[in-house]
Amino acid sequence: MTPEYIIIHQQAQPHIAHVQLNRPKELNALNLQLMQELRDALKMLDEDENTRVIVLSGNEKAFAAGADIRQMAGKTAIDMFNTDQFSTWDAIKKIKTPMIAAVSGFALGGGCELAMLCDMIVASETARFGQPEIKIGVMPGAGGTQRLTRAVGKALAMEMVLTGRFITAAEARQAGLINSVVPQELYLQEAFRLAAVVAEMSPLAVKMAKEAVLRAFDSTLEEGLHFERKNFYLLFASDDQKEGMQAFIDKRTPVFTGK
Ligand code: CAA
């Protein structure tokens, strides 16, 4: 079925897929259907051998202004529990293919959390990041208190979560939340440039490296180092390891096949 609230460009560039959030009138507010469509699209792309990197964007005005407040406003705690509003996020967390968020305009609440669920964030100078849930009587519910704190530290995370203040792209860059800031007309181009660099690498090594970096958030140093070493050893079962090392010795560019 054709999705209603997202646009999928499966081969936007060689080996790079582009998924665009597309509820522009509502500033890409993340309703349940949008999140289900996004989960299904990302799972489909994750299973596609030709897709090595996924770029996720909104539009110039908004990456996403958060979970859909209108859809949530009348719900009870039991409704929230029964619909398990954020269960789609668990599936997105399991995507192995690297994801780059290309953010312009608002990335607020669930929008900021969705960008943080991606592996890298490229922002336009106009981007604004925030967790303003406190202003509507709730708090972040899809990772804002955890991923934001790990990314920017307690002081700024606490300020953003308790006051709802938005930070600029420059401040987000300074705080370590995002990878780069570029003029608005270049933010998608920059995300694709970064994606193209990653897409040239062995896709197996990239997926295992992503998995190991993310493990750093959930494990002790000892467990993380052990996990890293296992993935490193495992890559010696791949053609890409042989090709990559032989190409270095031959002084040529490697051709990775993902095998
Ligand atoms: N949910 C539903 N609709 C939203 C929305 C949201 N999160 N954000 C914006 N919209 C809608 C507005 O209601 C408005 O619709 P109408 O034209 O039908 O009135 C339209 O998008 C345009 O928005 P504004 O007129 O408000 O645009 P603005 O430029 O004046 O302000 C804004 C932009 C500062 C982003 C403002 O819209 C805003 O504060 N939005 C809400 C941000 C927010 O609180 N996000 C957190 C949501 S809760 C959450 O995300 C929980 C979680 O952890 C997952």
Return the string of H and E elements: EEHEEHHHEEHEEHHEHEHHHH
User: Given the helix and strand composition, which structural class is it?
Assistant: alpha/beta
CATH topology of the largest domain: 2-enoyl-CoA Hydratase, Chain A, domain 1
* Residues in helices, as a percent range: 40-55%
In total, how many beta strands?
A: 10
Low-confidence spans: pLDDT under 50, at least 5 residues?
Answer: none
CATH homologous superfamily of the largest domain?
2-enoyl-CoA Hydratase, Chain A, domain 1
Strand fraction band? 15-25%
Describe this structure in words.
With 259 residues, the chain is α/β, with parallel strands linked by helices. The chain has 12 helices and 10 strands. Strands 1-2-3-5-7-10 form a 6-stranded mixed beta sheet, sandwiched between helices. A 4-stranded mixed beta sheet has the order 4-6-8-9. The longest helix is centred in the N-terminal third of the chain and has 15 residues. The radius of gyration is 19 Å and the shape is globular. The mean pLDDT is 97. The structure holds acetoacetyl-coenzyme A (CAA).
Concise description?
With 259 residues, this protein is α/β, with parallel strands linked by helices. The protein has twelve helices and ten strands. The chain folds into two domains: 6-199, 2-enoyl-CoA Hydratase, Chain A, domain 1, CATH 3.90.226; 203-250, Lyase 2-enoyl-coa Hydratase, Chain  A, domain 2.
